[in-house]
């Protein structure tokens, strides 16, 4: 049901592409899994109780409800880039990468980590990290703590932390209702924690190479995020949200515009996902409707993507069709249409491993690298689940960086955990190019970020900056002694 035919763009998927996309979905959603206990279901559309303990790190943002534009144009709206996480060590290093590359690409405005279900000890450590390290990247980078919302409907649905965590930040962190006049024209974005910015993501796509998904509505006359015109990355679940039991979802809204959406609109205006972008006015409305509807979606759809279905239906309920971008991100190298791979395919071979944040280079790229997959070429490999959670620590080595011509050396890959180990699996030429890009770019970016982090946190002379770690015992494809390398870093 996920890989259905998409009019005007998607050709009918074959079995292979369906399997690849299904694997991609399973891997990506792992990052939404949060903690444990949570109070009973709250009333929709509002959080009436005060937060247990909300901490805004001193010295990071004193008051992020007061816009402070860093763009010369007085009409440039304040930007707020948010991402929701658990309070785990693995999402700590991912969060640092979000902040670090927001700094590297000079992302305008505020960047906010919304962390759910943190213990007091974890909060204390994260506040210290923001005050001593993250604040050096930008005084506009902050963290907002929320309770755990996983049990808000009685069971344990960990993905609730995304909509309810964002609603919590809007109410208690941004104080949207109290500052509505100042904030309704702001731009609010939602990313996933395993996304790295390759270039600044702003509301204006007038001169951008962004690829806009075709729909009957046509492309927007003004290529900007505006009131009534939210943007998102297209995801390949098509009209899936509209195939759940809508009578139950909209039992309290029997005349909802979502119930009148045409099939074409369902498939081409609402199957969006991160990066989500909307004005403050629209984002606040969508998030409130999202929090109301997502529990009812979960009642009838307990599977993967349930919280994303909730977003789509909330947007349709508010009659806010999205401009869907096909090139906001790259993630799964084997996916068909809907990601920014045509931009990577157009790069020259000598550009694939070129790591640069110069504008003349980044303009060739998608906006976001979503590293929720495994990437491999020969025995070169990168996968976030095989990174130790403490890989930023002083004693850990950096990653060995591949030669710039690895795409010419290999047309196959060997999995670190292959069965049998050492099996060579063929790759087509186009996939070789994509795997090379992800491996080169991710390893270079991990090393760059780790080097800076260690410079801020390690005593002089104690940082291990040796680029030596690999995910196999040997990079020689014909040397499989030792078998699978089960240990992480």
Structural description of this entry:
The protein is an alpha/beta fold and 489 residues long. 31% of the residues lie in helices and 13% in strands. It contains 13 helices and 16 strands. The protein has helices at residues 15-28, 89-104, 120-137, 161-173, 180-183, 246-249, 263-268, 280-300, 306-317, 341-345, 359-362, 406-409, 429-457; strands at residues 79-85, 110-116, 141-146, 187-191, 195-197, 231-234, 272-279, 323-325, 329-330, 368-370, 374-377, 380-383, 398-399, 412-413, 425-426, 467-469. The strands form five sheets. Strands 3-2-1-4-7-6-8 form a seven-stranded mixed sheet, with helices on both faces. Helix 8 (280-300) crosses helix 9 (306-317).
């Amino acid at each position: 049901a996920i890989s259905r035919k998409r009019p005007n763009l998607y050709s009918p998927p074959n079995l292979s592409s369906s399997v690849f996309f299904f694997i991609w979905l399973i891997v990506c959603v792992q990052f939404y899994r949060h903690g444990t206990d949570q109070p009973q279901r709250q009333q929709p559309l509002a959080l009436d109780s005060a937060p247990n303990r909300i901490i805004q790190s001193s010295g990071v943002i004193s008051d992020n409800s007061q816009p402070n534009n860093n763009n010369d144009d007085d009409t440039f709206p304040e930007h707020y880039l948010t991402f929701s996480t658990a309070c785990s060590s693995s999402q700590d290093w991912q969060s640092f990468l979000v902040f670090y590359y927001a700094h590297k690409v000079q992302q305008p405005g505020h960047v906010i980590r919304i962390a759910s279900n943190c213990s007091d000890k974890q909060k204390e450590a994260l506040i210290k990290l923001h005050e001593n390290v993250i604040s050096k990247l930008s005084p506009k980078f902050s963290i907002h703590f929320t309770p755990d919302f996983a049990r808000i409907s009685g069971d344990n649905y960990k993905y609730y932390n995304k909509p309810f965590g964002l609603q919590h930040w809007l109410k208690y962190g941004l104080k949207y209702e109290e500052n509505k006049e100042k904030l309704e024209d702001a731009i609010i974005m939602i990313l996933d924690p395993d996304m790295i910015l390759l270039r600044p993501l702003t509301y204006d796509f007038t001169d951008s190479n962004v690829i806009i998904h075709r729909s009957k509505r046509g492309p927007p006359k003004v290529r900007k995020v505006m009131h009534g015109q939210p943007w998102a990355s297209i995801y390949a679940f098509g009209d899936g949200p509209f195939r759940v039991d809508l009578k139950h979802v909209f039992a309290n809204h029997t005349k909802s515009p979502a119930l009148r959406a045409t099939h074409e609109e369902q498939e081409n205006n609402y199957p969006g996902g991160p990066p989500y972008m909307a004005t403050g006015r629209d984002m606040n409305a969508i998030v409130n409707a999202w929090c109301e509807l997502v529990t009812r979606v979960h009642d009838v759809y307990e599977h993967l993507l349930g919280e994303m279905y909730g977003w789509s239906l909330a947007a349709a309920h508010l009659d806010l069709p999205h401009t869907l971008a096909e090139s906001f991100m790259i993630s799964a190298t084997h996916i068909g249409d809907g990601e920014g791979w045509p931009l990577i395919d157009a790069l020259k071979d000598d550009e694939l491993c070129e790591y640069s944040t110069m504008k003349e280079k980044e303009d060739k790229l998608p906006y976001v690298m979503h590293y929720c997959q495994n990437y491999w070429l020969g025995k070169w490999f990168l996968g976030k689940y095989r990174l130790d959670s403490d890989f930023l620590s002083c004693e850990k080595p950096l990653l060995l960086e591949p030669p710039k011509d690895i795409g010419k050396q290999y047309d196959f890959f060997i999995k670190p955990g292959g069965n049998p180990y050492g099996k060579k699996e063929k790759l087509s030429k186009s996939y070789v190019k994509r795997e090379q890009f992800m491996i080169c770019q991710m390893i270079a970016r991990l090393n760059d970020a780790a080097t800076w982090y260690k410079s801020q946190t390690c005593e002089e002379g104690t940082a291990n900056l040796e680029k030596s770690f690999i995910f196999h015992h040997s990079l020689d494809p014909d040397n499989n002694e030792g078998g699978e390398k089960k240990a992480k870093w």
